[in-house]
Specification:
The chain is of the alpha+beta class and 86 residues long. The chain has 3 helices and 2 strands, in the order H-E-E-H-H. It has one domain.
């Protein structure tokens, strides 16, 4: 949604945005760029397909915007979940 909203605001010719996700659990030691070095981590692999007559610079900018998506930023941050019965 973030990609589509940004493209619409810039009036770029985006026709369809498709996002595919794959989830897996990996050993922390298999992730060189991760802070956690012990136990298991969740890995989400994201594939973004953008249909429309865009140039390479526009596509690169839309990928940058995907990194700024509120859901993406939430998942990348430390999450503290507190549950209680109502």
């Amino acid at each position: 949604m973030t990609i589509a909203l940004y493209a619409r605001r810039k009036q770029w010719p985006v026709e369809v945005v498709t996002v595919r996700l794959a989830h897996s659990r990996i050993h922390a030691t298999d992730c060189a760029e991760c802070e956690t070095k012990e136990g298991m981590l969740d890995r989400i692999e994201r594939e973004i397909s953008i249909t429309g007559p865009l140039d390479a610079a526009q596509r690169a900018r839309l990928l940058e915007m995907a990194e700024r998506c509120p859901v993406h930023r939430t998942l990348k941050s430390e999450i503290d979940i507190r549950s209680r019965l109502a």
